[in-house]
Amino acid sequence: EVYFKNLSKQKQKEVMEKNGNNHKLRVCVATCNRADYSKLAPIMFGIKAEPQFFELDVVVLGSHLIDDYGNTYRMIEQDDFDIHTRLHTIVRGEDEAAMVESVGLALVKLPDVLNRLKPDIMIVHGDRFDALALATSAALMNIRILHIEGGEVSGTIDDSIRHAITKLAHYHVCCTRSAEQHLIAMCEDHDRILLAGCPSYDKLLSAKNKDYMSIIRMWLGEDVKTRDYIVALQHPVTTDIKHSIKMFELTLDALISFNKRTLVLFPNVDAGSKEMVRVMRKKGIEHHPNFRAVKHVPFDQFIQLVAHAGCMIGNSSCGVREVGAFGTPVINLGTRQTGRETGENVLHVRDADTQDKILHALQLQFGKQYPCSKIYGDGNAVPRILKFLKSIDLKEPLQKKFCFPPVKDNISQDIDHILETQSALAVDLGGTNLRVAIVSMKGEIVKKYTQLNPKTYEDRLALILKMCVEAASEAVNVNCRILGVGISTGGRVNPREGIVLHSTKLIQEWSSVDLRTPISDALHLPVWVDNDGNCAALAERKFGHGKGIENFVTLITGTGIGGGIVHQHELIHGSSFCAAELGHIVVSLDGPECLCGSQGCIEAYASGIALQREAKKLHDDDLLLVEGMSMKEEEIVSAAHLIQAAKLGNTKAESILRTAGTALGLGVVNILHTVNPSLVILSGVLANHYVNAVKDVINRQALSSVKSVDVVVSNLADPALLGAASLVLDYTTRRIY
């Protein structure tokens, strides 16, 4: 212990030598009211006790110098401190304007004082408007600031003032671990933050055993017993003055009804205090036999009063902070201390809107004794603060440094960020469902709507218009600007005119349909239309595996077989818009009949419809189900049952899937030999079942020059909608340089 003490002294000596030939640190402590003096006094005593290290200047301002608030500067004199300067800074009026004017008056008077004192550091406490004026003056005059009790959270304007002072201060003394973390989160330099505890606790924790009965009798009467009286201290809430006055009125009514001896302290100088005093006088509190109304109680006596009270009530920070050291029950009213850390002795009545609530709280709390809490300190704050002050190197740069956490690059002016909320309406016309979605520039499906696809042209077009109008209206609520409408549909499409030339058998009454005109007229937006296979390829080009690939092919393996071809980064449509009808590549001259009327098409082997057809044949012959499978009587046989049977070892199902995979693989080989892409993307619900079979066929059947092609499964969840969206997003945002 001696070694470490000597080491500490040596370090302090080195700092003093750095500061220049045993230069004493000139400390200015500015106190504004009775509350902050209770926190600053222990530090002032500590500084005064070490004259070899410090010179102390005391500046008094604010409500200390007002008779209505007890002329509390006298207790500073009684503590034997020389007051260097008294500044009358309070503009009377006790309203919001008076608070602002008081700050302004302090800012006018303080520069002259600071010029004369020339302190090395100013100590400022808390979150009062007077303290904000002190911190502002010191910061602008290049005086280092040590802020006491920063990082805490409470209600009202105090929070904003406290955090504003934190930003101005160079050094910070906080009382709790949570407050320390808040300061770090506010980007303050961790090396300039001291977790010391509350200075007032140094006095609190040594005060309880002193003679207290004489103090209690002096303030409350000869007949009062310990734990049989109440201390009430309530301040106005500056952000809701009208409500806080009403709450004070209800508190006094509850105290009158509760019928216990009560010491009521006058409120502070904040806006609304004058009205609260009027409420006290209107109810006759100053002359009521159960009440003692006082403007001020010296802090050491106030400690004894709350330590032995039956209860404390109000909204003062003292109730949630200092009183916990004694385990005295506290009733915290309203929102003024919202966010403060409290011990179990505090009962919160946040919505104190009736007398009964407050009265019930008094009945619950009065006379209890709780465990003592040391959330805010352990009684050793002052030695830590003095050591911290001695470690300050005045030769360090005065300019504050903020420790900002790592953040992403600022992209507020980046074109990708600007386009982020630009979106498209995507429409997918499937054989079963009609879907509309809002899709962002980054491929996020912001909102999706699904309805059954009507059977007739009129009903279908009416539903498309209705869903598009609803989605366009919703886009405003989700902060999306719709650039246009993209439509993905089965069949052959003229994308230049926006016309469906003729459709597959899955979508009835869907030939020679002009989609662009009615939708564009209804929404006043540009409209693009294309085949669903082409849209899947566009989706891959913009959002999927095809991004940045010059030549690739997409194959959709679903109810039917479709696809799209991208060559030199552009989609191929063909002379009559029939390019990339990949499902109708013939792989066998005598194969099964296809829905197109031909035989031996890939779709006749590998589509969902083809697999369902083969599954039904097996089921009719009682050859589908194997051990581990079951079907309900009304259940429709589907491709999924065939796949399940194959997985469970049904050899006939395995053979059908193998044939389907081979047919698809042969079709891919033909594509490789025709357009020679560098990538083949399998999309749709059956892609995972076919990918290995396709790779095997390529290895067996393809020319060696194309065997190196990559075959992958799409990672896009909804290629049809994303492709329809990319019709819009690619064209409306294209820039030509």
UniProtKB/TrEMBL annotation:
Where is the protein found, in the record's own terms?
Answer: Cytoplasm, Cytosol
Per the record, the pathway is: Amino-sugar metabolism; N-acetylneuraminate biosynthesis
Q: Which reaction does it catalyse?
A: UDP-N-acetyl-alpha-D-glucosamine + H2O = aldehydo-N-acetyl-D-mannosamine + UDP + H(+); an N-acyl-D-mannosamine + ATP = an N-acyl-D-mannosamine 6-phosphate + ADP + H(+)
Residue positions annotated to bind an N-acyl-D-mannosamine are: R492, T504, D532, E581, H584, E603
Question: Tell me, what is an example of a GO biological process annotation in this record?
Answer: UDP-N-acetylglucosamine metabolic process
Instruction: Tell me any Pfam family this protein matches.
Output: ROK
Catalytic positions are D532
* PANTHER family in the record: BIFUNCTIONAL UDP-N-ACETYLGLUCOSAMINE 2-EPIMERASE_N-ACETYLMANNOSAMINE KINASE, ROK (REPRESSOR, ORF, KINASE) FAMILY
The name this protein carries in UniProt is: Bifunctional UDP-N-acetylglucosamine 2-epimerase/N-acetylmannosamine kinase
Q: Which organism is it from?
A: Dasyornis broadbenti (rufous bristle-bird)
